[in-house]
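Subject: sequence -> C-alpha cells, single chain

Hey, anyone have a minute? Need the predicted structure for the following. Not urgent.
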Amino acid sequence: DSIRMAAMRHVSSPRLLGVRMPIQRMPRVLACASACTSIGDAARAASSEAIRVSIPDLQTNAVDRCLEYDMSLYTPIDVPGVGKIGCVCSPVAEALAAHPSVFHVDLQTQLVTMRRELDTFEKRTEAMVDVANDLKARGFLGKWRDELFPATMGFDDEPAFAVERAVVSLLGLRGYGVHANGLVRDESAPGGYRLWVGRRAADKATWPGKLDHLAAGGQPLGLDPYVNMVKECGEEAGIPPELCEKGLHAAGAVSYRLGETHTRMVDGASKGVATATEVHTLKRDVLFVYDLELPADFTPVPVDGEVESFELMDLQTVVNLIAETEEFKPNVALVIVDMLVRRGIVTAESKGYLKLIKSLRLIDCA
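Reply:
Had a minute. Here:
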C-alpha cells in the first residue's frame, strides 16, 4: 500500500523520477508497484521464516563487545620515521624505561619513543628481543608463543620490526589473523547451511571453554593469509589441503579494538618482588575472513589441542547463542555476524542494519 500511495503521488505530480508520465500509463505503474509489494512481502516472509534475527541484539552482544576500550589508559609508542605504532599502559611504560638504549619514556608528555639510532627493521627487531624477554621475566605476559609478528602501521606497509606474538597486545600493536566459517550445505536447515563450531580447550590461556570457529589463527610474519588459513585448517581441525582447494574462499575482513584488563604478578622495578598489578592490553586487530564449504560426510577432529570438540549447528542456533549469550569468543561472533550479513540472513529491512555493517570495519581496518 505504501508503494502504491508513493506511485500515486509521483504520477499525479505529474512526473515520476523527473520524467513526464502520460496518464494512460498510470495503471501499469500501479500494477508494478503492487507486484513489488507482493514480492517484497513474500521475500521478507521467507527470510523471517528461515532465521529469526534481532539486529540490536547482534550489535550489543557481538559487535559492541569487540569495541570496548578506553584510550586514556594508554601512552603512545612512536617510532621515528614510521609513526605512532602502538600504545602501552603506565606499568608497561615504566618497564620500557628500564631499556634506555631502546626507548625514551616521557611520562609527563605521555610519549614512549624508540631511539632514532634504531633506524632499520633489523636493528629494531634485535633490540626488541631483550625487551620482550624482560617483559616475560617480570610477569607482564601471558603464554609465550614463539612466533614473530610484524609491528606495522598497516598490512601493506613495511614492518618497523618483528616481535614475539605474546607482546603484540601488550604494546597495543596492530594484529592480524585469519578465521574460517566452516559451512555444510543442508537445504532442510534454516538458511540452507549448518556451521561447524569448536569448543576451546579448558586450559587455553585466553577465552577457555568458549565457542570458536572451525579454524582460526594469528597472522605471523612472512606468510600469506590464504596459506596461513590452509595451515590452520590442517593444524586445528584435520582438514586436508585438497578440501581447502575446493571449498576455501576469501570473504573480506573485519576489524575491532578491544581493551582488556589482566591482574598479573609483576616485578615492576625488577627487584625480585612481584606484586599484583592491573595490566591493560589493547587488541587492534584485523581478521581476514574465509568461508570454507565442506562436504556433509566430512567431520573435523581436534588436532593441536586448541579446541577440544566440534559440533555442527544450524544457523538459527548460532544466531540465538550470539544474540542471547556470551558463549562465543567475542571476535568469533564478530566474524559470524559478518557472514550473516554477506549471505543475506541479516538484511536492510531491519532497523540498525547500516550501523551494524559500519561497526564491522569501524576501527583500525588497515
